[in-house]
Amino acid sequence: MSDPAVDVVEFLLTAHTYTEEDELDEDDLPPRYRQVFWSDGSIERPLAVTQDRARTATSVDHPWDAVSDLLFTQRTEFSGEISLTQPEMALEWYLDRVADDDRLATNPTVAYAAENADDIEVDVSREQAREDNQPIQADRVWIDSLLDEYFDEDEDAEMLDLVQILAPEEIETTLDDLVLTEDQSNEVQKIVTAIENRDYLASIGLSEIGKILFVGPPGTGKTTISRGLAHELGLPFVEVKLSMVTSQYLGETAKNVEKTFEVAKRLSPCILFIDEFDSVAKTRKSDEHAALKRAVNTLLKSIDDISLVRDEVLTVAATNHPDQLDAAAWRRFDEVVNFPKPDHQMRADILRIITRDMQMAEFDPEEIADETEGLTGSDLRMVLREAVLQALTEGRRELTQQDVMDAVQGFEERDNLKNMDMIDGEGAAIAGDGGQEHEHGHDHDH
Questions:
Q1: Could you give the angle at which helices 4-20 and 51-58 cross, rounded to 10 degrees?
Q2: Is the pLDDT of residue 374 over 90?
Q3: Which of 317, 338, 359 finishes a domain?
Q4: Cβ distance 174 to 232 under 8 Å?
Q5: Residue 54 has pLDDT above 90, yes or no
Q6: pTM over 0.90
Q7: What's the domain count of the chain?
Q8: Residue 242 above 80 pLDDT?
């Protein structure tokens, strides 16, 4: 259990050291502290520690009460600010109570203070801590402030509706949560390597790199892997649904397309994910909506003009219908990654991951995998969801193998209904609604 006094003293040490040392920048502050000091697009010195800021940063309900009996702390009655009277004593007190280096590795500012203090030896340097610390570009407050700075809420509202921007801290899925094919694993490793070696790639003239097309049916993990990569690398995730871009209900579509790429460049380094990329082909083949055709041409040109090496934007597009893409769309990408439906072993592994936090009685994922050929990761999650809900209606939280098998059968029956020709109008609507989530469902669960 965390010690409230240690938490508050660390916060005070961080604020004091950062204020005194101009060499330190925003990336030296842990994200939980950056958020409370962020104002009008920056963090300005001096960092004043108020009761509210300390409470927000440390989750200690009564920060001053936690440290009021320590010899090196004080509170200004008029302003209510809490500060250190003897920073050196506070640092020694803190390091005596931090049992290992793991905590110090999350705070580059305190690591810097310890590294430069007399008669103190620590195994964690400021640079090491900075490598493990989430950069400020990954913070929600930084993303929001940048959007406020460069884009007008009224003028650019239409464009901002086209994009969903996630900070890494908002993405729950990690790469460890995913089951990947060998090709997918290799591609992820190549992406990570390219991002880590951007300067070298630029020095040898390889700037046209980092544009990837993910191809596969719905539910096979195209979106999920992209988000997991953003979480793993600590990068903002900018998602654009191309079907919305090419909607006839949006005005100034070409201008909006350009601005979505501008958003990605402003938030760089980041991952730009373009979903439903086959909408390009549908629009280019249509004789209608010349303005939308111009928007698609703008999109293709924007992909040409953006670069991982030069702009620090990794561009990933996804399509469920690669057969609808023409040569002009294909040649924009330097890598194409296949996302097939999972085989038997992958289905078993996916089931193990989905159920790892569930209460299971004699669960055999191999048997379930035998019965679920053709199902995607998204389908398997839906199966487990139904099994859990059915067990809960019966007053149970522990799932049995039979619960899961019954859910598999129920899923198959629903899938068969989706493909029936319904004569009655009302029945057809119901069947269509029931099948829509499976046919066009999100790609988030493989």
A1: 110
A2: yes
A3: 338
A4: yes
A5: yes
A6: no
A7: 3
A8: no
Mean pLDDT score of the chain, rounded to an integer? 86
Looking at residue 56, its pLDDT comes to: 95
H helices of 59-106, where?
A: 63-67, 87-97, 101-104
> Is residue 38 predicted with pLDDT exceeding 60?
yes
Q: Using CB atoms within 10 A of its CB, is residue 139 exposed (0-12), middle (13-18) or buried (19+)?
A: buried
| Residues spanned by the domain of 360 | 344-440
Domain CATH number, residue 407:
1.10.8.60
The residue out of 115, 133, 151 marking a domain boundary is 133
Q: Which two tokens stand for residue 29?
A: 């502050």
Q: Are the CB atoms for 60 and 7 separated by under 8 Å?
A: yes
Residue 116, C-beta contacts closer than 8 angstroms, at least 6 positions apart: none
Q: ∠ CA(264), CA(141), CA(76), 5° rounding?
A: 155
How far CA 22 is from CA of 16, 81, 110, 262, 417, in Å, comes to 12, 22, 14, 32, 67
Q: Are 104 and 124 in contact (CB under 8 A)?
A: yes
Q: Cα–Cα distance between 105 and 88 in angstroms, integer?
A: 19
Query: Which one of the listed residues 20, 81, 158, 439 is annotated catalytic?
Result: 439
Determine the Cα–Cα distance for residues 339 and 273; give it in Å rounded to an integer.
Answer: 16
Backbone φ and ψ for 426, nearest 5 degrees, come out as -65, -40
CA 218/CA 293 separation, integer angstroms: 26
Strand, helix or coil for residue 250: coil
pLDDT tens digit sequence for 165-197: 999 989 988 888 899 999 999 999 999 899 889
Establish how many alpha carbons lie within 13 A of residue 212's alpha carbon, considering only the half-sphere containing its beta carbon: 22
| 441 pLDDT above the threshold of 90 | no
What is the distance between the terminal CA atoms of the chain, rounded to a whole angstrom?
A: 35
Cα–Cα separations (whole angstroms), residue 156 to 151, 246, 262, 440? 6, 17, 12, 29
**Which of the 8 DSSP states describes residue 442?**
-
Residue type, 254: A
Please indicate, yes or no, if residue 446 is contained in any of the structural domains.
no
Cβ-contact 91, 13 below 8 angstroms: yes
Give CA 164 to chain center in angstroms: 11
Active-site residue 439, yes or no?
A: yes
| Token duo for residue 176 | 């460890």
- Cβ 284 vs Cβ 293: under 8 Å: yes
